[in-house]
Amino acid sequence: MLELVDIHTYYGESHVLQGVSLKVEKGSVVVLLGRNGMGKTTTVHSIIGFTPPRQGKVIFKGQDISHLQPHKIPQLGIALVPQGRRIFPSLTVKENLIMAARGGRNGGWDLDRIYSMFPVLKERANLKSTLLSGGEQQMLCIARALMTNPELLLMDEPSEGLAPLVVRELGGTIKALHRSGCTILLVEQNLRMALRVADYVYILSKGVVVYESKADELRANQEIQNIHLGVSG
Questions:
Q1: Is residue 144 part of a domain?
Q2: Which residues pair with 32 in a beta bridge?
């Protein structure tokens, strides 16, 4: 569904991504791991058009979208769950969801289906979104992205700032979305949660993919975890 081919992305003269290539197969959960400042969010921004690559290609369903304007890319079926949530504070939970609704595409996500997957959002539907807990706000951010009925869901550090129990619940939500047929590219630092949900993993270091494997292989490879992610047994 998605392929990055040798992409080079810059911030000004700073060469952040230095030949990143990866693939996301339809129906899979692919996780991009790495320490802070290694280019993970820049990779997401390169896909969604916020910082288009100067070299290389971003290919979605066979189409080169490398230089499309950012507002055109979601229209193709890609949705972003951004780092930091970025919900609309002046709107209620329901209003946040309705403003994102886009029917007629893959998945059939509507309010009823959202409320079935996220019952707490139905309970809080008429509350201002700022009154939700951090975990509830993250659920709202994911639900808002689903209301666009995407074919590919990009999730940028969704566990950031959440308590361990909430992170576990988040992992359960991602697994449920996977079972429902969602294709997901997840950027994450929480290795335990990432390996619970991933089919395939890439590790990014200083703008370069330094490791890739099935999730089970990384789970069993403590040396790689230690070298590239600072995780020790």
A1: no
A2: 187, 202
Burial classification of residue 88, based on how many CB atoms lie within 10 Å of its CB (0-12 exposed, 13-18 middle, 19 or more buried)? middle
Total domains present in the chain: 1
Q: Are 61 and 1 in contact (CB under 8 A)?
A: yes
> Has residue 47 been placed in a domain?
yes
Distance between CA atoms of residues 132 and 208, nearest Å: 37
Contacts of 10 (CB under 8 A, 6+ apart): 16, 51, 54
- Helix H segments across the chain? 40-48, 93-98, 111-117, 119-123, 134-146, 164-179, 191-197, 215-219, 222-229
CATH number at residue 42: 3.40.50.300
Q: Report mean pLDDT in 10-residue bins for the chain, 233 residues.
A: 97 93 96 91 95 96 94 93 85 91 70 91 92 90 92 92 88 92 92 93 95 94 88 50
pTM: 0.91
Query: Would 145 be classed as within a structural domain?
Result: no
Which range marks the domain in which residue 2 is found? 1-71+183-233
Q: Is residue 102 part of a domain?
A: no
